[in-house]
Structure to design on (175 residues):
């Protein structure tokens, strides 16, 4: 994988959403066909032999690569969404963020015990949303679960990876 290509196309916005945060904007990776191809191919290589049957994309940027990879792997996509966005019966998991409590939801019929699940999001920082999504997925008792992020932030004292000791977690870039 051409990590330098991705790093060269990653936009960083200082002091967003608040002072002291250096926001990594992955939308600049998505707008480049070359970067999209690079990311999809790298993810495919990581997961082509894992038997993935469902990819859970975390709202909202996680939907993009989850869908692209699912098309290449020939598997389904499940959406992990903010409250009130899914039309059928849902299960939910709440978690504490640095500025309050948030919740993620999934349809109650999203995953079966026969599924091998990959949870995907764009960025791992504190890990709160991903951990809540992981707990939701475990409610379904799938055969196996994997987690992937495009970017893992470690240079700002963030240790989101530490929340996932019991599951295989991969990232394309570590910053």
């Amino acid at each position: 994988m051409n990590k330098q290509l991705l790093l060269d196309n990653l936009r960083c916005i200082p002091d967003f959403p608040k002072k002291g945060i250096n926001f990594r904007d992955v939308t600049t990776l998505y707008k480049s066909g070359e970067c999209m191809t690079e990311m999809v191919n790298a993810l495919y290589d990581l997961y082509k032999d894992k038997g993935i049957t469902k990819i859970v994309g975390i709202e909202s940027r996680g939907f993009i690569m989850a869908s692209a990879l699912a098309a290449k792997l020939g598997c389904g996509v499940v959406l992990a969404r903010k409250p009130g966005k899914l039309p059928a019966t849902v299960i939910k998991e709440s978690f504490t963020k640095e500025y309050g409590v948030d919740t993620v939801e999934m349809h109650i019929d999203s995953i079966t015990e026969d599924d091998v699940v990959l949870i995907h999001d764009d960025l791992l920082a504190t890990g709160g949303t991903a951990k809540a999504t992981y707990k939701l997925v475990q409610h379904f008792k799938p055969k196996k679960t994997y987690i992937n992020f495009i970017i893992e932030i470690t240079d700002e004292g963030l240790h989101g990876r530490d929340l996932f000791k019991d599951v295989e977690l991969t990232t394309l870039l570590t910053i």
